[in-house]
């Protein structure tokens, strides 16, 4: 009974920071761009400034 509701809730939720970071890294075309993107993430590109 609750399984369809869980699927719906899971599909409507916003992606987590880790999911957004991984999607960003997966878009890189080569090793150099991957390293650049990793440095950007390490600098806090996806983190909120407090």
* Total beta strands: 0
What's the pLDDT, averaged over the residues?
89
The gyration radius over C-alpha positions equals 15 Å
What is the N-to-C succession of helices and strands? HHH
| N/C terminus separation | 41 Å
Q: Judging from the principal axes of the Cα atoms, what is the shape?
A: elongated
Largest sheet: none
Strand content: under 5%
Helix content: 55-70%
How many discrete structural domains? 1
Supply the number of helical segments.
Answer: 3
Low-confidence sequence ranges:
none
Question: Helix- and strand-based class?
Answer: mainly alpha
Put the structure in a nutshell:
This is DUF3563 family protein. By secondary structure, the chain is an all-alpha fold.
Structure characterization notes:
The structure is a single chain. With 50 residues, the protein is mostly helical. It has one domain. 64% of the residues lie in helices and 0% in strands. It has three helices and no strands. The chain has helices spanning 3-12, 17-26, 31-42. Helix 2 runs antiparallel to helix 3. The model has no long low-confidence stretch (mean pLDDT 89). InterPro entries: DUF3563 (IPR021946).
């Amino acid at each position: 009974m609750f399984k369809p509701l869980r699927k719906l809730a899971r599909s409507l939720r916003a992606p987590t920071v880790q999911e957004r970071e991984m999607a960003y890294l997966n878009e890189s075309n080569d090793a150099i761009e991957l390293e650049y993107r990793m440095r950007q993430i390490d600098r806090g590109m996806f983190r909120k400034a407090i």
